[in-house]
Amino acid sequence: MSVPAEWQQNLAKAFSNRSFLIGLIITGLIALTAVLSFVWTPYAVGTLDIAGKLKPPSEAHWLGTDHYGRDILSMIMVGSRNSIAVALVSVVIGIAVGVPLGLWAAARGGLIDEILMRFNDLVFAFPALLSAVMITAVFGPGAVNAIIAIGIFNIPVFARVARGAALVLWPREYILAARASGKGALRITVEHILPNMANLLIVQATIQFSLGILAEAGLSYVGLGSQPPMPSWGRMLFEAQTMISLAPHMALFPGLAIVVTVLGLNLLGDGLRDVLDPRLRRDR
C-alpha cells in the first residue's frame, strides 16, 4: 500500500523542520520513559529507606533520594505516565465534546450558535484549578476528578477552534456545490468540513496536551490531583519545598521533568503548525 504523495511531502517537510524534530525526540523519550516504567524502574517507588534519605545524586541513585529515602528517578518515571494519562484523557474529552459542539454551532447558526457559544464562555470562565476545587469538594480529590476538571476546561477551547474553522469553510465553493447536490449539513460536516480542519485540531490538541501536563502538576501540587502512593511531579515539588535548603535536587529534577516535557510538546506543536498550515508555508 503506497503512501499518498501529499503525506510524503508533509513528512519530508516535518523532518526538515527543526522545532518538529526536537519536539518529537523529546516527546518520544518522555513517552518511552512512561512505557518503560510499567515494566522496570531502578527501585520500587513504594520502597522506603529512612537511613538513605536526602542523598544527593550518586551511582546508586542517579537523581538522589527524597525525605523518605525513595529513589527520585523511579518516582519521576512512574509520575510521567500519570501526567501523560491525565493530560491525554482530558484532551480526548475536550475533542469528543467540544468539536461536535463547535461544528453544530457553525452548521446551525442563529440561536443555537449563540446559546452554545455563551455556554462555552461560561465554562471557559472557570479555570481547571477552580473546576477541580468544586469537583473535589463533592467527590473528593483524585486523578479521575483532575481529568474531569481539565477535560471540562478543554471543551470550550476545542469548540471555539472547530466553530471558527467551520465558519471559514462553509462559504467555500466546494461546500456550496455539495449543498447543491443535495447533501445535508451532517454529511457535509463529516465528509468535507471535518477533514479540512483536522490539521488545525491536531495542532490544538498538542498545545492542550502541554497545558494539561501543567494543569495536572498544579492540581497535584495543591493536593487535588493523584493521591499517594501514586507518584506525581506536582506533589513531588510540593514535598520538596520544605527541603529545598537541605536537598535542592528534590525540587530540581521533578521541575526539570515538567519543563522539558512542556517544552517538547510546544516545539512539536509549533513544528506541526508550520508544516500543516498552508498559510504559514506561504508566508515563510
Structural features, described:
By secondary structure, the protein is mainly alpha-helical. It has a single domain (18-34, 63-283), classed as Orthogonal Bundle (MetI-like fold). Helix content is 73%, strand content 0%. The protein is elongated, with a radius of gyration of 22 Å. 39% of the residues are buried. Mean pLDDT is 88; it is low at 280-284.
Q: What's the Cα radius of gyration? A: 22 Å
Class computed from helices, strands and strand pairing: mainly alpha
Order of helices and strands: HHHHHHHHHHH
CATH topology: MetI-like fold
Can you tell me the number of structural domains? 1
Helix content: over 70%
Question: What oligomeric state do the depicted chains represent?
Answer: single chain
Q: Per CATH, which architecture? A: Orthogonal Bundle
The general outline is: elongated
Low-confidence stretches: 280-284
Brief descriptors of the model:
single chain; 284 residues; MetI-like fold
Task: Give a brief outline of the structure.
By secondary structure, this protein is mainly alpha-helical. The chain has helices at 5-15, 18-36, 72-108, 110-124, 128-139, 143-169, 173-180, 185-221, 233-240, 249-276, 278-283.
Mind sketching the topology for me?
Blueprint: H1 5-15, H2 18-36, H3 72-108, H4 110-124, H5 128-139, H6 143-169, H7 173-180, H8 185-221, H9 233-240, H10 249-276, H11 278-283
Helix pairs in contact: 2-3, 2-10, 3-4, 3-6, 3-8, 3-10, 4-6, 5-6, 6-8, 8-9, 8-10, 9-10
